[in-house]
């Protein structure tokens, strides 16, 4: 996973925003890459990757927390070309308020192992440590 830090605010609600904290290259092409980008937001909301949609849809104007990952296609310079809607749920890798689920989702994207396989390995490690 590559460390990336970039923050952004929601238009019209400048106290709500998100911060990209990581990126995983999942596929390489000649002139473009598929990446999974991970974010944390200080609000609870829905994500919409359809054409022309406003990506963030806050549930309300209150503070909250959510972690999410999205599948993006970028050019060879890292500029976004659009969502990779063929992956995940219409381009969304995961969305959760639970930090543990977020970390397992990130580990799954990083290693290529399913969340179930990661949980089984963690259970085996705990059992072996006893």
Would you mind describing this structure in some detail?
The protein has helices at 99-111, 115-129, and strands at 2-10, 13-28, 32-41, 45-47, 56-58, 66-75, 80-83, 92-96. With 130 residues, it is an alpha+beta fold. A hairpin with a 2-residue loop joins strand 1 (2-10) and strand 2. The longest helix is centred in the last third of the chain and has 15 residues, at 115-129. The model has no long low-confidence stretch (mean pLDDT 89).
What is the secondary structure topology, with strand pairs?
Layout: E1 2-10, E2 13-28, E3 32-41, E4 45-47, E5 56-58, E6 66-75, E7 80-83, E8 92-96, H1 99-111, H2 115-129
Antiparallel strand pairs: 1-2, 2-3, 3-6, 4-5, 6-7, 6-8
How much helicity do the residues have?
Answer: 10-25%
- Which percent band covers the strand fraction? over 45%
Give me the count of strands: 8
Any idea what the shape is?
globular
Structural class based on helices, strands and sheet pairing: alpha+beta
Please provide the ordered H/E string of secondary-structure elements. Answer: EEEEEEEEHH
Tell me the distance between the termini.
Answer: 31 Å
Main sheet specs: 6 strands, antiparallel
Low-confidence stretches: none
Q: What is the mean predicted local confidence, pLDDT?
A: 89
Descriptive key words:
two-stranded antiparallel ribbon, 46% strand, 6-stranded antiparallel β-sheet, 2 helices, alpha+beta, 22% helix
Give a brief outline of the structure:
By secondary structure, the protein is an alpha+beta fold. It has 2 helices and 8 strands.
